[in-house]
Amino acid sequence: MSEIKVYKMDEYNWVATKWNLEDTLKWYEDLEEIDDKFTKEDIKNIQECNLETDGMWWEATEKDIEKLGDKEELCFNPNELTFGDIKYINFEVCKYISLRQALEYDGDFSEPYIIASTEW
Questions:
Q1: For site-directed labelling of 82, which of 30, 36, 44, 53 has its Cα 20 to 30 A away?
Q2: Can you say how many angstroms the Cα of residue 21 is from the centroid of all Cα atoms in its chain?
Q3: What pTM was estimated for this model as a whole?
Q4: 12-41 pLDDT, tens per residue?
Q5: What does the pLDDT average to over 72-79?
């Protein structure tokens, strides 16, 4: 598998890619939802994520749901997100996992894709 990177493209979307940033930007701009081209300032603000320390919310398993029980959330550190935290988000039970773990769940891919979004 080629080296995978995840970029925080803007305030809404994180993209997993094996491509270089320039080609990934072209792909991202060609998405139907993206009306404006990236400016030089926008490109400076794109952040490469750390696959081990950055995370995202993922659909919880039955075991996670059982752990949560009747609570609305099960957080290990109330002051910051911690891998393994479980809570309801938009009426679904979700678990906070590393980007590396999310990539492993998704499996191999050839084209970039939006791995996480605040708009779902």
A1: 44
A2: 17
A3: 0.88
A4: 999 999 999 999 999 998 886 666 677 788
A5: 91
Q: What's the mean pLDDT when you consider all of the chain?
A: 92
Distance of CA 20 to the CA centre of its chain: 18
Per-residue CA distances from 22 to 17, 53, 111 (Å): 11, 24, 14
- Domains of the chain, residue spans: 5-117
Residues in Cβ contact with 5 at an 8 Å cutoff, skipping those fewer than 6 apart: 16, 17, 18, 48, 49
CA distance 42 to 38: 6
**Residue 61 CA neighbour count, 13 Å, CB half:** 5
Residues 55 and 83: their CA atoms lie apart, in Å, by 7
